Amino acid sequence: MPSVARMSSIRCKFVCTSVTKSKGWGDHEFLYAARFEAVQGGSDENKSFFAATPCGSVEVSTVASDKFEVGKEYFLDFTPAE
Q1: Which of 39, 63, 66, 68 could form a disulfide with 28 if both were Cys (CB 3.0 to 4.6 A apart)?
Q2: Cβ-based neighbour number of residue 21 at 10 Å
Q3: Model's pTM, two decimal places?
């Protein structure tokens, strides 16, 4: 079996583009889905992140309405779960 290189942590920078509310389940009346897109510009730091991660999108859901704000930028860290 070929050896697999260990992945180090990777940091990306995304901006929240939408938060939508839908019917929840169980004890949770509502579910909030937040969509994120990779940053592209607006600052030198964002241009640097765009050069390394030029495109991408992520969607996450939560039962709390106040976790993510449209227009706000967030770091997303990928770390192996070993």
Answers
A1: 63
A2: 11
A3: 0.78
> Based on the number of CB atoms within 10 Å of its own CB, is 36 exposed (0-12), middle (13-18) or buried (19 or more)?
buried
Q: Which domain holds residue 29?
A: 10-78
Please tell me the predicted confidence (pLDDT) of residue 68.
95
Three-state DSSP class for 82?
A: coil
- Radius of gyration from C-alpha coordinates of the chain: 16
In 1-82 the beta strands, taken as DSSP E runs, fall at 10-23, 30-38, 57-62, 73-78
Q: 25 in a domain, yes or no?
A: yes
Number of domains in the chain: 1
